[in-house]
Amino acid sequence: MCSLEKRGNLWILTITGDDQNRLNPNLISSLLSTLTTLSSQSTPGSVLITTATGTRFFSNGFDLLWARSATSPSAATERLHSMVQSLKPVAAALMSLPMPTIAAINGHASAAGFLLAICHDYVLMRSDQGVLYMPEVNLGLPLPDYFAAVFGEKIKSPVVLRDVLLGGVKIKGKEAVKLGIVDSAHDSVESTVEAALRLGEEFAKRKWAGEVYAEIRKSLYPQACLVLGLTPKSLVSKI
């Protein structure tokens, strides 16, 4: 459901789900297992780049079709709740990964797919196709607490945050750059991934200590880390 490739100090994680890369239990489990393995293999200079297969979707969020295929409304609700709970450790793993993280969004990133992208340190997006979109208000679905915490600390403008979460706006690449949600927008999938690789190579040259990097990240997003169950670690300074 996802693959991991090593190129020097760069780790390329590729989501390989269905045609929309929807987050079902199998894909969520695969992501968590891959990130756990990656965390244990981190060395100074390691960098994660996450992208997805296809040219239309980075991820269209939770697999609501699978949830709704349950035998009863209560069972469907339970399936959705289970997916929400199981994605939380994935978000926590990304927010505590001991290396810089870069998302190369190859298409639409919707709902939980948007969350997955914004949990990365840097977000690159294509400008020719694809939107960022939080449809919960339109679907009548409540926002999980960790979604609200991550978005609240990653999107600093209250107006932009309001429009994303309460307005259900669809945001294209160049507009997302202007709003400060993503770092850069590129002409195609290929150029987006290439830019992510170049940025990753620059970070890899710095040979940052992963544990220190992770702890500094946690200090930047204390509320999100609190909700995700991440606690600071005491590290000994080396001079």
Automatic annotation (TrEMBL):
Q: Which InterPro entries match?
A: ClpP/crotonase-like_dom_sf, Enoyl-CoA_hydra/iso
**Which UniProt keywords are present, listed alphabetically?**
Isomerase, Lipid metabolism
Task: List, in alphabetical order, the GO biological process terms annotated in this UniProt record.
Answer: fatty acid beta-oxidation
GO molecular function ontology, one term from the record: delta(3)-delta(2)-enoyl-CoA isomerase activity
Q: What is its EC number?
A: 5.3.3.8
**What is the enzyme's main class?**
isomerase
Named in its record, the pathway it takes part in is: Lipid metabolism; fatty acid beta-oxidation
| Family annotation (CDD domains) | crotonase-like
Catalytic activity reads: a (3E)-enoyl-CoA = a 4-saturated (2E)-enoyl-CoA; a (3Z)-enoyl-CoA = a 4-saturated (2E)-enoyl-CoA
State the family named in the UniProt similarity comment for this chain. Belongs to the enoyl-CoA hydratase/isomerase family.
Designated name of the protein: Delta(3)-Delta(2)-enoyl-CoA isomerase
Instruction: State the organism of origin.
Output: Medicago truncatula (Barrel medic)
Q: Which gene encodes it?
A: 11423941
